[in-house]
Write a sequence for this structure.
């Protein structure tokens, strides 16, 4: 392990981490790193071997009791040499005392179980162009026209801790579109679409009903390059799974949402797509 050092990620490192994730086939958003940086500026770690970046991980703190692990990557030429596990241990140490979540790819899930994580559900990515249809009278507005405090309060129904700084950047970065469904002055849905190297990613996607979710997906797809979208759907919400299938989206990838303790209480029936497999 001589010559291996762990430190915080720089702005240049964040761009590098995004490129590594793209090489892994994860299709991260083009500008996600700008929202990630404000979620927890100290939450991204890079392992360097003799000065060369060879591994990365995120260990983001939310509130006082929750944390999320993501971007756990060791470059192929150093795998199996112990550098990744050292970085992993540093990340978990940073989140000590918190409930920790992650989205584990299939080939790593046994390793995560050995580290104390237990599966709660699978997030299954569905991709394609949603079939056309009637919005059924659902009123969809630009989320930026609503008071941010209302958007943040709505988001807290679906996430264990407040994440206002992240949400503000996530919904407002240039090049992405955030739409909300509103009825009688209440927010009944929220969705964000962002450009990626592959299909444009939708997430989060919250909705009071399948009709609201369908209306948001169709409208968000209008802002996607080529009309192709990808949404990570929790299979713990069978209504969401049935909806994306009915809209013609097909499964292409999955990861297990896992926690170190009991899964936090969130509005699963209203969760049609998670915001990010890297930050929850």
């Amino acid at each position: 392990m001589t010559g291996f050092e762990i430190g915080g990620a720089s702005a240049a490192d964040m761009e590098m981490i995004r490129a590594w994730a793209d090489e892994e086939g994860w299709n991260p958003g083009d500008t996600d790193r700008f929202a990630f940086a404000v979620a927890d500026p100290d939450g991204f770690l890079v392992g360097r071997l003799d000065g060369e970046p060879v591994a990365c991980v995120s260990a983001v703190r939310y509130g006082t009791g929750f944390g999320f692990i993501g971007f756990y990557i060791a470059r192929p030429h150093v795998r199996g040499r112990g550098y990744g596990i050292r970085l992993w241990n540093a990340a978990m140490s940073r989140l000590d005392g918190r409930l920790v979540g992650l989205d584990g790819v299939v080939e790593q899930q046994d390793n995560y179980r050995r580290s104390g994580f237990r599966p709660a559900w699978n997030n299954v990515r569905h991709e394609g162009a949603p079939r056309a249809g009637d919005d059924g009278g659902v009123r969809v507005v630009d989320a930026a026209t609503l008071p941010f405090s209302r958007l943040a309060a709505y988001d807290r129904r679906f996430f264990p801790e407040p994440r206002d700084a992240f949400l503000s950047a996530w919904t407002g970065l240039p090049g992405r579109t955030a739409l909300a469904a509103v009825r009688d002055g209440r927010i009944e849905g929220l969705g964000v679409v962002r450009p990626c190297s592959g299909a444009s990613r939708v997430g989060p996607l919250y909705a009071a009903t399948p009709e609201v979710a369908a209306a948001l997906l169709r409208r968000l797809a209008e802002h996607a390059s080529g009309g192709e979208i990808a949404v990570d759907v929790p299979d713990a919400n069978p209504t969401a799974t049935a909806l994306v299938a009915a809209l013609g989206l097909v499964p292409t990838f999955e990861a297990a949402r896992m926690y170190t303790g009991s899964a936090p209480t969130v509005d699963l029936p209203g969760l049609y797509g998670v915001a990010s497999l890297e930050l929850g």
